[in-house]
Design goal:
The protein is mainly α. The chain has helices at 2-16, 19-30, 34-54, 59-95. It is built from four helices and no strands.
Length: 96
């Protein structure tokens, strides 16, 4: 599940973000620093919303906002999966 989510994020990242943003987001994910990844994506989403406020008819910015929000959903899902993995590992360690 985790691998699939990372693949989806990586694929969408290339379309939703510029190269620098994509590399930074992937860096956070490699380090499993999901909180920083979510904060970083939140900043990106705010910037895109700000751009959209000046030109509500810009289809490219609308698509970027949609993709950025989808990325956020995937990162949140990855965070949940990771927390579940940690809990299972703790239970396994305690029972051994």
């Amino acid at each position: 599940m985790k691998k699939e989510l990372l693949q989806k994020i990586s694929g969408l990242c290339c379309f939703a973000l510029n190269d620098k943003e994509c590399i930074k987001l992937q860096h956070y994910l490699i380090l499993e620093d999901y909180t920083s990844a979510r904060i970083y994506l939140d900043k990106i989403i705010e910037d895109v919303e700000w751009k959209l406020s000046f030109d509500e008819d810009d289809e490219v910015v609308k698509k970027q906002l949609l993709d950025s929000n989808s990325l956020m959903d995937l990162v949140i899902e990855l965070t949940i999966v990771n927390e579940g993995d940690k809990e299972r590992e703790q239970v396994r360690t305690i029972t051994q």
